[in-house]
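STRUCTURE REQUEST FORM
Protein name: Transglutaminase family protein
Source organism: Alicyclobacillus fodiniaquatilis
Requested output: structure tokens
Priority: standard
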Amino acid sequence: MAELQTKAPLDWYLRSTQMIDVDHEEIHRFISSCNYEGKDEINIIRDTFEFVRDQVSHSYDVKGHRVTAKASEALLDREGICYAKSHLLAALLRGMGIPTGVCYQKLTLGDTPDTGYCIHALNTVYLAPQDRWIRLDARGNKPGVDAQFSLSEEKLAFDVRPHYGEIDYLTNHYDAHPQIVQTLENHKESDALEMYLYHLPTDL
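Status: completed
Returned output:
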């Protein structure tokens, strides 16, 4: 597992923020509808992760055009790129009292460096019974991408390839990075596919 740099107090990872809008009524409504009674925390984390991974589509995969940014928007539309999906997973778990953060990777936009680079978002989740953080990637699976819930080893959507200039940013953020927020706000009224292909940040 990656050694994360967690600099904020644990309770900050339960806060409601602009993008991780835990206090939104739709977040509360969804949590109330979940049949989690009798489940332990590990299974709640797994089920919530799998819901965001599998039931909230990645905009590029489904050729969706609306830019969703906040957790509540991704939940209502059941769609978003990795930024919105990471906000949603964080909001849902925080709403159930489970500290959750966001971290990032620098990846090639396509398979090789000549396609350019982009910043990819995933989540950190605190496992109280084990007093440790793990990373989960709810981007959404497809051929060549197989992210899974795992306690023993990371099974993320993408393996970072340093020889291609890719980077694992191991800072455990309690809120969305300002560059991510700015990107989503600047393109709120534009096309999600155009934003994804041409306007994502390339460095943090």
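Reviewer notes: The longest strand covers residues 117-127. Residues 41-55 form the longest helix (15 residues).
Form closed.
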